[in-house]
Amino acid sequence: MSIPGRKVRLRAVEEADLPQLQAWANDEVLWSNLGGWRFPTSFDSIRTWFAGLKSDPANLRLVIEALEGGALLGTANLVDIDWKNRHATHGVMLGDPAMRGRGYGFDTVMAVMRYAFDELNLERLDSDIIEYNQPSYRLYVGKCGWTEEGRQRRWHYRQGRYWDKILIGVTRDDYAALVRSSGYWT
After folding, report:
1. Exposure of 143 in the CB half-sphere (CA atoms within 13 A)
2. 162 pLDDT band (50/70/90 cuts)?
3. How far apart are CA 111 and CA 36, in angstroms?
4. Which pLDDT belongs to residue 32?
5. Strand pairing report for 147-158 and 124-130
6. pLDDT at 28
7. Per-residue pLDDT tens for 67-119?
8. Which pLDDT belongs to residue 7?
């Protein structure tokens, strides 16, 4: 099974994807825009992570493929899924800088939201953005219907200083309104 978008297909991580995922895991520029702390990642670490994916129903990890040409573009996830309260945390990473700004991120977020709300019956998704990552802010809040719900001041240490963590979220109703107003899936 895969999760289709208009420009992308989201699918399970396969062993053949691991070399590219390791390269992205070690890309300092890429990770400077993402939350969390990263250490150099060995191929053995990637294999161990991959082996754990099979038995983790609270964390869905996917790769993003371009529908046209099948290029591996990045990763998307729904993690910390709370099945009782019907919410999860979402993230997306486009690994190749040349693929950014071409609609792949937007289509990925839309496909994840459709899957989360229409298939998994979740009520809301949460995420966060480092305050200087304006492309992600414009994608989520400006285009995908997410709302800034708060800030944790001076949360991330990057580039020799502290930056705020911007907390964002989207509900099933927000998503439905976006689809109605944009006609994206029609």
Report:
1. 17
2. very high
3. 24
4. 81
5. unpaired
6. 83
7. 999 999 999 999 999 999 999 999 999 998 888 889 999 999 999 999 999 99
8. 96
Neighbours of 102 (CB within 10 A): 13
**Sequence-distant contacts of 140-149: CB under 8 A, at least 24 apart:** 140/109, 140/168, 140/170, 141/168, 143/106, 144/106, 144/109, 144/110, 144/113, 144/170, 144/178, 145/170, 145/174, 145/175, 145/177, 145/178, 146/170, 146/174, 147/174
pLDDT of residue 175: 98
**Distance between CA atoms of 43 and 46, rounded to whole angstroms?**
5
> What is the Rg, in whole angstroms, of the alpha carbon atoms belonging to the chain?
16
64, amino acid identity: I
pLDDT value, residue 37: 64
Phi and psi for 138 in degrees, rounded to 5? -65, -35
pLDDT-based confidence at residue 52 (cuts at 50, 70, 90): confident
Strand order of the sheet with strand 72-82? 2-4, 8-12, 60-66, 72-82, 87-94, 124-130, 161-171, 147-158
- DSSP for 94-140 reads E--GGGTTTTHHHHHHHHHHHIIIIIS--SEEEEEEETT-HHHHIII
Give dist(CA 117, CA 64) in Å, integer.
19
